[in-house]
Predict the structure of Flavin reductase (DIM6/NTAB) family NADH-FMN oxidoreductase RutF.
Amino acid sequence: MKKQSVPLAEAYRLLEPGPVLLLTTADPRGGRPNVMTLSWHMMMEFEPPLVGVLVSGRDDSFAWLEANGECVLNIPTADLAPQVVACGNSHGRRRDKFRLTGLTPSPASRVGAPFIDECYASLECVVHDRGWVARYNLFVLEVVAAWAEPRKRPRTLHHRGWGEFAVAGSVLRLPSAMK
């Protein structure tokens, strides 16, 4: 089969970024939690575990992560797809995404941002390196505590762009505010 040209603005859809995450932060002025959907991340080191995350400078989560220097990376499973999309399609400044989605925040053990009870796993993180934040909005996080349910093979979501997700080889079509 002959390949066809892909618009460069859609090249990201060709790469598998790993499971979709729900990144939680806490408002530095009062501790109110926020949650955002995050697909752009990468493992950078094993010990200590370092994770690079790209967070848009337009998001409250960016400001709160920069101010507090900590967050939780929560790993949802496929059964949470509607909540994941709802978090990604709404803005925390205007609404409480936990109330909107029915997700349950719980205190983490080492950071001020909350776990999400319904997620398969949660990684408590502190900002390890801010060297790429100003140029790329890329935070390097150090995982300081990790928690997971003892399931062997969770069915995680993998964002493929424009409301399309892969789940264990299947594809889900979900609403997207991105047009």
